[in-house]
């Protein structure tokens, strides 16, 4: 499954263009612009499955750093500051990674 099966290419392009500069990524505005905030829990779970590159059932810090590249191979990697802030926002149980339920909550925040 491709991310464009769930999200429109136009929305992805718009969301990526809003965070091209280092340290400009804001997960809330990104999720809103890309249209993920309005998706069903099942659709959000499918996006989580795409983001979970190693299929561990979690999105770890290394995968978060490459978050934008899941939407476009030409997108930048997140900075260390952005990655740590993103992880801190999503990791509600403190295990150092984001599970599917945590991701669904983060998207709907």
UniProtKB/TrEMBL annotation:
<feature type="binding site">
    <location>
        <position position="63"/>
    </location>
    <ligand>
        <name>Ca(2+) 1</name>
    </ligand>
</feature>
<dbReference type="GO" id="GO:0005509">
    <property type="term" value="F:calcium ion binding"/>
</dbReference>
<dbReference type="InterPro" id="IPR008080">
    <property type="entry name" value="Parvalbumin"/>
</dbReference>
<feature type="binding site">
    <location>
        <position position="102"/>
    </location>
    <ligand>
        <name>Ca(2+) 2</name>
    </ligand>
</feature>
<feature type="binding site">
    <location>
        <position position="95"/>
    </location>
    <ligand>
        <name>Ca(2+) 2</name>
    </ligand>
</feature>
<feature type="binding site">
    <location>
        <position position="58"/>
    </location>
    <ligand>
        <name>Ca(2+) 1</name>
    </ligand>
</feature>
<keyword id="KW-0479">Metal-binding</keyword>
<feature type="binding site">
    <location>
        <position position="54"/>
    </location>
    <ligand>
        <name>Ca(2+) 1</name>
    </ligand>
</feature>
<comment type="function">
    <text>In muscle, parvalbumin is thought to be involved in relaxation after contraction. It binds two calcium ions.</text>
</comment>
<comment type="similarity">
    <text>Belongs to the parvalbumin family.</text>
</comment>
<keyword id="KW-0677">Repeat</keyword>
<keyword id="KW-0106">Calcium</keyword>
<dbReference type="InterPro" id="IPR002048">
    <property type="entry name" value="EF_hand_dom"/>
</dbReference>
<feature type="binding site">
    <location>
        <position position="97"/>
    </location>
    <ligand>
        <name>Ca(2+) 2</name>
    </ligand>
</feature>
<dbReference type="InterPro" id="IPR018247">
    <property type="entry name" value="EF_Hand_1_Ca_BS"/>
</dbReference>
<dbReference type="InterPro" id="IPR011992">
    <property type="entry name" value="EF-hand-dom_pair"/>
</dbReference>
<feature type="domain" description="EF-hand">
    <location>
        <begin position="39"/>
        <end position="74"/>
    </location>
</feature>
<dbReference type="Pfam" id="PF13499">
    <property type="entry name" value="EF-hand_7"/>
</dbReference>
<feature type="binding site">
    <location>
        <position position="52"/>
    </location>
    <ligand>
        <name>Ca(2+) 1</name>
    </ligand>
</feature>
<dbReference type="GO" id="GO:0005737">
    <property type="term" value="C:cytoplasm"/>
</dbReference>
<feature type="domain" description="EF-hand">
    <location>
        <begin position="78"/>
        <end position="109"/>
    </location>
</feature>
<feature type="binding site">
    <location>
        <position position="91"/>
    </location>
    <ligand>
        <name>Ca(2+) 2</name>
    </ligand>
</feature>
<feature type="binding site">
    <location>
        <position position="93"/>
    </location>
    <ligand>
        <name>Ca(2+) 2</name>
    </ligand>
</feature>
<protein>
    <recommendedName>
        <fullName>Parvalbumin</fullName>
    </recommendedName>
</protein>
<feature type="binding site">
    <location>
        <position position="56"/>
    </location>
    <ligand>
        <name>Ca(2+) 1</name>
    </ligand>
</feature>
């Amino acid at each position: 499954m491709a991310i464009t099966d769930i999200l429109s290419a136009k929305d992805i392009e718009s969301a990526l263009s809003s965070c091209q500069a280092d340290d400009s990524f804001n997960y809330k505005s990104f999720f809103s612009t890309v249209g993920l905030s309005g998706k069903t829990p099942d659709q959000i779970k499918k996006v989580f499955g795409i983001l979970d590159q190693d299929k561990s059932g979690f999105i770890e810090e290394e995968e978060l750093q490459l978050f934008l590249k899941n939407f476009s191979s030409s997108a930048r990697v997140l900075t260390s500051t952005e990655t740590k802030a993103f992880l801190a926002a999503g990791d509600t149980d403190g295990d150092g990674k984001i599970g599917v339920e945590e991701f669904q909550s983060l998207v709907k925040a």
